[in-house]
Amino acid sequence: MPNTKYIFVTGGVSSSLGKGIIAASLAKLLQASGFSVTIQKLDPYLNVDPGTLNPYEHGECFVTNDGAETDLDLGHYERFLNIPTSQANNVTTGRIYQTVINKERKGDYLGKTVQIIPHITNEIKRRVKILGQTGEYDIVITEIGGTVGDIESLPYVESVRQLKWDLGKHNAIVIHLTLIPYLAAAKELKTKPTQHSVKELMQSGVSPDILVCRTEHHIGEDIKRKLALFCNVDKDAIIESIDAKTIYDVPNLMLAEGLHEVVLKKLDLKASKKPSLSKWNEFLDHYKNPEGTIDIGLVGKYIELQDAYKSILEALDHAGAHNKLKVIIHPIHSEDLNEENAAEKLKGLKGLVVAPGFGDRGIEGKIAAVRYVRENNIPFLGICLGMQMAVIEFARNVLNLKNANSTEMSRSTPHPVIDIMEDQKMVTEKGGTMRLGAWDCKIVKKSKAFGVYGEELISERHRHRYEFNNDYLDQLSDAGLVPTGLNPKTGLVEIVEIPSHKWFVGVQYHPEYKSTVLNPHPLFIAFVKACADDK
């Protein structure tokens, strides 16, 4: 087996402390030190993947090139490391149990009693090692979802215990992310929750090698000594993670704390170079010191939860920094929009993004928003369902096709300008059955899209069941809504534009999934620039 090193990141005291950001920041520093690094996420829920989860439950569903529907933390991993992830980078308890039960049904266990230990834990260990066995990575970081003490996390913690023993000293370490709360009444930082969290972890047979402490205030040497004494962790392995203004500050904070140095020492590794974050900090400088601001609306139906559109928000930030602008995003609930109030609700915006989604809730509001920006020559970007809403709006209000719709929303529509894909008509199961992953698109040369990408053949990630109905292609195109990107094999319309409009582009795919800090997506860059030019 390749000599890959493993780092496990667990969380304690509270959820939402930012294990994914700490894991991504550490990976960024190790990558900048000359190592090949990847990150995987182990999620303790019983869903096979997040694909069937409502965004209110778990935020957005991130999609990889190979068509995996994954946890949103994989988006952070890609945005920080600038390398793609895959199916192997996200594993759920549901997938673990599904695999073990399928093996049992086939008789693979030869009559043995199938149990959590060793069968479930062996499958977890096998999944953890898959990335390391490819020979591509020096270091694999594995983030374990949930909080230590959760019943559903116990098999993962036990698997980590076994892996540390299997792999041997210097080949696997555990980083425990915990919280040091500040009691305002006492004006004190308290270590007791962390002590209990570490005790809980140690009762499962795992002793953390490094403590990363989330805190609102600097923890100081006294607290570090106290934690070292009562948590059985080296003092220099206690790392402060103070609240940051932006997640993009965290790699610099971890660099200053020397997290990567402690990790390399414990893994008995030597870096080939000192980590440089110059390009990262160039982005950060533009992000923090913009030359202007731009107001852009985001119309969606999950806007109460920021994580529901995480990749879109991040892609707009990346594009804003590239254009040296601060993008001020105005979330607008599509259920609150209609033809009568669209002008008032969207007043003052210099651009509009209509977000993806499923189902008929809030659809008419999205259509009203598209009409307003189309008729008022305001830059528009429609993503997936947002592109489909643009097609429906144009069909209704320009072609006068009364009650034009998508068969997702109305099976009886007389004008199904958006219809279910042919290969989806016989699909009955919901999970993992959509058109997923990277697909090619051929772009018409004389188009805004070609100006954006600068090449004819591109590849983008998809997640949908319904598509542009090519029976209406000529009608729509002749009236001014022009398909400028097609799948070269299926003829599926991937991009539509209105050439006479200042900047009106709808895409069937999800460009936000490929935007990273160091490589902002060109479509978002062009859209933000168009909004700024409009200003």
Q: Gist?
A:
It is built from 18 helices and 23 strands.
What labels would you give this structure?
23 strands; alpha/beta; 9-stranded mixed beta sheet
Structure explained in plain terms:
This protein has 18 helices and 23 strands. The chain has a nine-stranded mixed β-sheet, sandwiched between helices. A seven-stranded parallel β-sheet has the order 5-2-6-1-7-10-11, sandwiched between helices. Strands 16-17-20 form a three-stranded mixed β-sheet, covered by helices on one side. Strand 14, helix 14 (363-375) and strand 15 form a beta-alpha-beta unit. It is globular. The longest helix has 17 residues, at 116-132. With 535 residues, it is α/β, with parallel strands linked by helices. Helix 4 crosses helix 5 (116-132). The N and C termini lie far apart (58 Å). The mean pLDDT is 91.
